[in-house]
Design brief:
Chains A, B: One of its GO terms (molecular function) is methyltransferase activity. The structure is a homodimer of 253-residue chains. The first copy, chain A, is α/β, with parallel strands linked by helices and 253 residues long. Chain A has 2 domains: 7-117, Cobalt-precorrin-4 Transmethylase, domain 1 (3-Layer(aba) Sandwich), CATH 3.40.1010.10; 120-248, Tetrapyrrole methylase, C-terminal domain (Methyltransferase, Cobalt-precorrin-4 Transmethylase, Domain 2, 2-Layer Sandwich), CATH 3.30.950. Helices cover 28% and strands 27% of the residues of chain A. The first copy, chain A, is built from 7 helices and 13 strands. Chain A has helices at 23-31, 39-42, 61-73, 91-101, 119-127, 147-159, 177-188; strands spanning 7-12, 34-38, 52-56, 77-82, 110-113, 128-129, 135-139, 163-167, 194-199, 207-212, 225-229, 234-239, 242-248. In chain A, α3 crosses α4 and α6 (147-159) packs parallel to α7. The model of chain A has no long low-confidence stretch (mean pLDDT 95).
Chain lengths: 253, 253
């Protein structure tokens, strides 16, 4: 009945290979009794004797968070597994929503979020330093917020000359998201604004496409793409026989 | 003369203890011949036989980046060490600025940035999930950009209802930065907007202060503080005998 010995750790694997995992996250994954998460994330982890796995579909975040809290309340040591960083468009917010709206006893549980390498930071590192100035991160998913809010945020981000990272640029339900977003951004930013599509960063099929706002081929954008829109100070460094580096000047004049 | 065997890796240690370090970053630090960085970051790393250290002052980023590129061009395996994530208000942008304005041969070097856990992500994890919605990161340092730009970005971020992470909220040269920033934000946001000061996250002296915009004690903000300003959907979960969790609702109505 008592949850005092249970524990829930919310862990992010980073966007791709095991090299992104932090020491704390590795230790938490090793000591957990139950691993809960979206199936492809769990599939990245080695099987371990005596460890239970509960793989779920991607679109049931709140249910998955409740199940994790329920098991921790039963005294289990649970790791809830996200990709990237669990606090950036991933599972951590769902856990606290489940806690606030769930059993009062859940607030007394030992719950900890461990930070990880978000897709945005991993993509930026691969490119050079595109987030070298002020930046913002916007999810284009309108499952939980009105498209009007997304429009306003894109406009504000463009007006503020932020570097912009776009998460969830495509979905089966609404493939036109990225077209709508680029229409808004194109009305607010110069056509030569640098644009990067970072696909499947850290995985074997990784692909980086560099273009400008006027000429970007939006058909390249899929669900595994992180889109970065440069600011005025975002530049290319051409290199002999290699992809250019992309970085943003620290200095703003 | 040839730099073909040299290599420069730009590494972030995360904001505090060794638990934030990724596997790739640890391997890069172990295999480097030369470690270059701000002295307190190098002091966190174990001494290793045959490894050279070059500790420098905090305010000479560009010189430090040039020295790292120069050594890599001489054929050395160099690790340039940052706190947090090297791409977020840290050393990576300085490296590419040094490359673009330096020796043409530097563009042919093997240069790689490894992502890390930024102070913003670590602070957010400690709090719960305050970055659960769209968010932006703004440095309040006006060493390299006019204060007018900072003002405009704060106004745009507030108008867009972004969660806002403020880096470099104080400096010896300009202790009033955070006062000026809060004056701008207070004119644009409701007085009950949640505010968090996350000080020295991941270190023994870590301190978390939760307040609201109208009542925050700005004298608490020092150079090691990461400031988070909530959005409309940012909330507290009160807990028995513990600091409340802070999270941002995924749903925007």
């Amino acid at each position: 009945m008592s949850g005092r010995s249970g524990r829930l750790v919310v862990v992010g694997l980073g966007p791709g290979g095991p090299g992104y995992l932090t020491e704390d996250s590795r230790a938490a994954l090793e000591s957990a009794q139950d691993l809960i998460g979206y199936a492809p994330y769990l599939a990245r982890l080695p099987e371990r004797e005596g460890q239970t796995r509960l793989a779920s579909d991607n679109r049931v975040e709140l249910e998955r968070a409740r199940e994790a809290l329920r098991r921790a309340a039963e005294g289990r040591r649970v790791a809830l597994v996200s990709g990237g960083d669990p606090g950036v468009f991933a599972m951590a917010a769902a856990v606290f929503e489940a806690m606030e709206t769930g059993e009062p006893a859940w607030r007394g549980l030992d719950v900890e979020v461990l930070p990880g390498v978000s897709a945005m930071l991993a993509a930026a590192a691969r490119l050079g330093a595109p987030l070298g100035g002020d930046f913002c991160a916007i999810s284009l998913s309108d499952n939980l917020k009105p498209w009007d809010t997304i429009t306003r945020r894109l406009e504000c981000a463009a007006r503020g000359d932020f570097v912009i990272a776009l998460y969830n640029p495509a979905s089966r339900a609404r493939p036109s998201r990225i077209l709508d977003a680029f229409a808004i951004l194109s009305a607010a930013l110069p056509p030569e604004t640098l644009v990067v599509f970072a696909k499947s960063v850290g995985r074997a099929e990784e692909q980086i496409i560099i273009a400008d706002l006027a000429n970007a081929d939006l058909s390249q954008v899929d669900m595994a793409t992180l889109v970065i829109i440069g600011a005025k100070g975002t530049r290319l460094i051409e290199r002999p026989g290699a992809r250019p580096f992309v970085y943003t000047l620290r200095r703003v004049s």
